[in-house]
Design goal:
This protein is of the alpha+beta class. The chain has 2 domains: 266 residues, no CATH class; 88 residues, Sandwich (Immunoglobulin-like). It has a 4-stranded antiparallel beta sheet with strand order 8-9-13-11, with no helix packed on it. Helix 2 packs antiparallel against helix 12. It is elongated.
Length: 367
């Protein structure tokens, strides 16, 4: 029964998405975006908003991944992995344990704590989980976000529900444009139609209320509920179910689309992990000072999970006026200014940042 496999996949997905903010690497969440400092914690590394090239690379990877999954596996995301589908399926599965008579009412009651859990998890992707727990009903901002998100999620699940999948969801519309003749879909075996009992068990089981016997429908979310319902009716007759998955997964398009997606993923990972542990950016201030005295603004970004002690110096034997010894906490940044005074006329000057096996030289203009 496909339902068993879907339940396992949905539970695993729920555990991963809910637990990811609580998984810590180098003292920070494995995956969390810090709104205040505009940086993304990504599995032991920090990606700053200024690193736009990484955002572009990540966008390219996700676009290729979406195209690959959709072209090859059809609406597998909608029926197996979409958080909305997971929440509705799990709540309905639990509700049925109490009997079918009040299943809808119990499902709606179960969706209240589920919506709260989802709201809490979403906040934890932006605010450290420990801080979220402490301020959930203390901070006005966090409490307001939690309540509003919970209400919106609950209303979306109970009022729109599966209607969202077939009428509003933009991804559903995109999928229909990417399908080809070999895409994995659920199709009714019309060649055996004369042996079908026309019990309509498949119709009653469909969460989006389509009749699979009428042919392929763009509203189908490939959840396989119709296959399971038909199998129950067909097993006593020792015949296979009439609706079933149809398509070709292993084909030429799978290889080149999958290969392109894998290359994009590998490139993105290499770009992230090959970044230097510390970035050093220096710019000369435009305002004029006395002769042979320039002021520079610098920014230092610690991309690693370790604190670093750095020394700012110059191999050009110029005089540096300002703080020389700098300490950066893990995944932190430091912004400051320093004066550079030279005893002779020169066009360029070199600033060096060193320490913790780090040595970065920056040549900048001098007037």
């Amino acid at each position: 029964m496909w339902k068993k496999y879907r339940t396992v996949v949905e539970i695993l997905q729920a555990i991963i998405l809910t637990g990811l903010p609580f998984l810590t690497i180098n003292g920070e969440s494995a995956f969390r975006f810090d709104i205040e400092k505009l940086k993304l914690y990504f599995f032991g590394s920090a990606i700053w908003i200024r690193e736009f090239y990484l955002i572009l690379a990540a966008t390219l990877f996700f676009l290729l991944l979406i195209i690959f999954v959709t072209v090859i596996f059809g609406r597998i995301w909608c029926g197996w992995l979409c958080p909305q589908t997971v929440l509705l399926d799990l709540s309905e599965t639990i509700a049925r344990l109490f009997g079918r008579k009040n299943a809808r009412t119990i499902r709606n009651l179960l969706l209240v704590p589920f919506s709260g859990l989802v709201s809490f998890t979403i906040i934890c992707y932006f605010v450290p989980p420990a801080e979220t727990i402490k301020t959930l009903f203390v901070s006005t901002t966090v409490t307001a976000f939690f309540i509003v998100l919970t209400v919106l999620i609950y209303l979306e699940l109970t009022v729109l529900g599966r209607k969202f999948c077939v009428s509003i969801c933009p991804y559903a519309m995109l999928q229909n444009a990417l399908f080809d003749k070999d895409t994995l879909v659920i199709e009714y075996d019309s060649l055996r139609d004369n042996t079908c009992m026309k019990c309509d068990a498949c119709v009653r089981a469909c969460p989006v209320n389509i009749d699979i016997k009428q042919g392929l429908s763009p509203r189908c979310i490939a959840c396989a509920e119709c296959i399971d319902a038909c199998r129950i009716m067909c097993e006593p007759r020792n015949i296979p179910p009439f609706p079933n998955y149809r398509g070709s997964i292993i084909r030429l398009k799978t290889l080149w689309l999958g290969g392109a997606t894998a290359v994009a993923a590998l490139t993105l990972l290499l770009m992230i992990w090959s970044r230097p542990p510390v970035d050093f950016i220096v710019t000369r201030d435009a305002e004029a000072l006395v002769k042979n005295l320039n002021r520079y603004s610098y920014s230092i970004y610690n991309n690693s999970g370790e604190a670093v002690i750095l020394e700012l110096s110059s191999p050009d034997h110029v005089i540096l006026i300002g703080e020389h010894s700098l300490i950066l906490k893990p995944f932190s940044s430091l912004h400051g200014k320093i004066l550079v005074k030279s005893t002779d006329r020169r066009d360029r000057v070199m600033l060096r940042l060193s320490g913790n096996n780090i040595s970065i030289n920056k040549e900048i203009g001098f007037l």
